[in-house]
Design brief:
This protein is an alpha+beta fold and about 130 residues long. It has helices at about 20-30, 30-40, 45-55, 60-70, 95-110, 115-130, and strands at about 5, 10, 45, 75-80, 85-90. It has a single domain (about 20-130), classed as Winged helix-like DNA-binding domain superfamily/Winged helix DNA-binding domain (Arc Repressor Mutant, subunit A), CATH 1.10.10.10. InterPro entries: HTH_HxlR, WH-like_DNA-bd_sf, WH_DNA-bd_sf.
Length: about 130
């Protein structure tokens, strides 16, 4: 597979270095993209409310993330012409589909975090025994 247009048809291949799909995947699966999409799956948010929900994200990173997700068609930005402007973010139908799948992954990870912690302990103990 390639990411070149062939007969007016794009064949996406995330494994191809220059494929657009790789950049889109980075926007969706990056730490802030995943968390922003998952939060927006709960409903529309104003910027500061979303920033509080996604604990730890800087204003700059959230703005950049939302802009990338909006450009990719996952997020809709609605700006009301008031003073100050009231801006609300929500998911597009495509964004809702992606967010649903991300929520499934998040729930899986959250549900298995004890297994991850046990694996980390076993790994650390085995490395300490070799080094010791």
């Amino acid at each position: 597979m390639s990411c070149d247009a062939e007969h007016d048809q794009l064949v996406a291949d995330v494994f191809a270095r220059a494929c657009t799909s790789r950049g889109v995947l980075e926007h969706v699966t990056g730490r802030w993209g995943t968390l922003a999409l998952a939060a927006l799956a709960e409903g529309p948010f104003r910027f500061n409310a979303l920033r509080r929900k996604v604990d730890g994200v800087s204003e700059k990173m959230l703005a950049q993330t939302l802009q990338a997700l909006e450009r990719d068609g996952f997020v809709h930005r609605e700006a009301e012409p008031t003073i100050p402007p009231r801006v609300e973010y929500s998911l597009t139908p495509l964004g809702a589909e992606v967010a649903g799948r991300l929520r499934e992954l998040i729930e899986l990870v959250e549900g298995r975090v004890q297994d991850v912690m046990a694996a980390r302990r076993a790994y650390d103990e085995s490395k300490a025994a070799v080094a010791g």
